[in-house]
Specification:
single chain, 6 helices
Length: 100
């Protein structure tokens, strides 16, 4: 049975082999972050982005920025937010997090 805000349960579900599904990996990262496993969220997002160097998924970069910020890596967070803005210049979350 699924429950609202059960991020640990979401992690268990999303950790099942997804056949390289990028969106599933991004949702896994978001669940990891919300469950408090910041290091795994960062590592998973970095792997996803590295697997597709031309990644046009701004949300992955925004999420990486949030994860790096929570990990105390402010400079790395800004780099991720700036990358998201290069992909999607009008992205409100990117603009707010970059302070523009």
């Amino acid at each position: 049975r699924h429950r609202a805000n059960d991020f640990a349960g979401a992690v268990r579900c999303l950790e099942r082999p997804a056949g390289g599904d990028v969106k599933a990996a991004i949702y896994l990262s978001e669940s990891l972050l919300r469950a408090g496993d910041v290091a795994r969220a960062v590592a998973t997002l970095e792997r996803v982005i590295a697997s597709d160097p031309g990644s046009r998924i701004s949300f992955a970069h925004l999420l990486l920025g949030s994860a790096r910020q929570r990990a105390g890596d402010s400079k790395g967070a800004v780099v991720a937010y700036e990358t998201a803005l290069r992909i999607e210049p009008d992205n409100l979350a990117g603009l707010v997090n970059c302070g523009t």
